[in-house]
Every structure is written in structure tokens, then in C-alpha cells.
């Protein structure tokens, strides 16, 4: 099947047709297959009922979907449907787990004292985001306003992206271990955590990101079940983490791609992330906090050591000082009104084939 969406992929999404309700479907090539006729959790209008049912139900549903698609059901062109958020978002947490991203940002923003914070290699750092502003890819992103400096309020002048991978919780739980990961996390999706860097610089000390992040987070319309993916060893961690963060759990060799106004500008490598999704989940719940069906937690910006592996434009343009030339000849330091960003990616399936992760996109409006 073309476009990396064959039988070993089949990510879930929610779609509607003009005048109709919302249905669960899977993507097959450039089409969508309606799952309503399969009944049960697959006849719901969001993924939440299936996700809450647990891993045995996830596997049974996937077997049923593969059999259904193999039988050659009617397909609907993607151009004929509207895609919606594939799950109802309960909570949103964003992490900061790329060592290269953390190091590069420190060099840009703290050149007098670059380096990792002392706790960075001891725990997965994160912050609690705003679930109400998580939107499906394709939703226009309105330029946020806020305090830019002392006595200055107005639209952000340094609007940025963060290319991330999100993990979607299915089964609720608390004080989970890294080995609980596969029983509680249903799948993954691509995330763009839009960021206003000037608001962030003014507000983030001492309590971290707030209004610079909460105005919009875009997620892909497709959620790929974890069972569809091949795993790879996690990166070596030194010093050894505390017992509740061991073993590290599975890692995934995802290759992201960032396009700015249809110009490819970066290919962030997810396999280089220091903290795994299993460790993030364990740390998130280690104090007794619970996760619920539909909780979304994101990896944090994915960045590699090369400039063209940067997962944010802050890094790519060195805080706007080294502008990027786009295909139309224009140059950019940060996002301008009308700019369009698409974050896509590929992975290796459990069957060993390269598959597509789809994409998450957004256009900046004034």
C-alpha cells in the first residue's frame, strides 16, 4: 500500500462526513476505512472506550481490523472526510528528555553558564500542560499575546515549534513501574508543542513554562498502537537511574521530518532521546499522581547533534540570529503570520517494514 500506510500500520483516527456523525477508522494509503460495522468499542465516536478496555482488547481489536481490511471493505478518500481529535484528552504533560536539545538551548539562552541542570540526568523533567488547548493537526494557530518584557504586552515576536512524540494512556493507574508501560499506554502520535519564546524567556523563572506554551498544542489525527512498532535498545544512561526508573523500557527508532512552508528543514532522530516513554510514565506517577484514559504526555523536543536535526526553530536559527532560507527565497528566524509547519515521520513496524507516522500540521494566523 502506498504512502507507508499498509496492513502493518493501520493507525486509528476519528472522521466524519458532511452531515454525518463521528466514526472510528483506520488509514489505508490515501483512504480511510470505517470501523463502525465491527461493533463494540470500534463503533464508538472516539478511541477512549477501546483504550480503557486494556491490552487484551487492543490486540483483539487490531486482529479484527486487519481481518476486516484484508477482506476489502469500501474505502473513503481522505479528501472526502474531516479528521478530528482521535481521543478525548484528559490531561497533558510535556517532558524535556532530549539531552542534545537541553544542551543546545543552554548554549543559546545561558551562554555564560551552559550545560545541563544538576538534576537532569537523575529524573525526567516535565511540566503539567493545558489539555483544553490540545487541537487536532490542521487547526489554525492564532499568534498568542502576552508579557514580552517589563511593561510590554503584545503578540509574540518569536513564535516557535517543538517537534515531539506523544504517548496516549489507555488504562488508568498510579505509581506505575517502567514494566507497566505496555499495559497502560495504548499508542503514540506526533505532537507540535507551539512555543512563544519571548513570553517564555520573561516568565519561566522560577516556575517554568506557563502562557508561552498553553495557547496551543497540535496532535496528529492518527494514533498508532504500540504493538505495531519495532523496538530498539534505549540509550545508555550515566549515572544509573534510581530503582523506580529501571529498567528503561522500550525505545523506538522514529525518524521525524520538519517542513517550513513546504521546505524540508530538519530531521530530528527520536532514537537519541535520553529518557524513555516508560521512564516518563513511571516518574509522572511516582508521587501517587494518577493517569486516566486519554492522558497525553509528550517526549519533549526531539533534537540531534547536527543543526539540521534540530526539533525547534530556536535551535535551527540559533535564536533567530542565523536565518533559514526557504524554497521561495524568503528567510526566517521565527514564524511569521501565514507560515505553515508540517511535522511528519517514519518508523519501522513490528513486521520490519518502514511505515509512516502521518503528520501534524498548522498554519499561523494573526
TrEMBL record:
Highest taxon of source: Bacteria
UniProt keyword list: Calcium, Hydrolase, Magnesium, Metal-binding, Phenylalanine catabolism, Tyrosine catabolism
Claim: Cytoplasm is one of the keywords in the record: no
The protein's annotated pathway: Amino-acid degradation; L-phenylalanine degradation; acetoacetate and fumarate from L-phenylalanine: step 6/6
EC number(s) on file: 3.7.1.2
Residues covered by the Fumarylacetoacetase N-terminal domain: 9-80
Residues spanning the signal sequence: none
Listed name of the protein: fumarylacetoacetase
Keyword Hydrolase: yes
Cofactor: Ca(2+); Mg(2+)
One Pfam family it belongs to: FAA_hydrolase
Residues passing through the membrane, by range: none
InterPro entries assigned to the protein according to its UniProt record, in alphabetical order: Fumarylacetoacetase (IPR005959), Fumarylacetoacetase-like_C (IPR011234), Fumarylacetoacetase_C_sf (IPR036663), Fumarylacetoacetase_N (IPR015377), Fumarylacetoacetase_N_sf (IPR036462)
Example GO molecular function: hydrolase activity
Domain Fumarylacetoacetase-like C-terminal: from-to ranges: 93-349
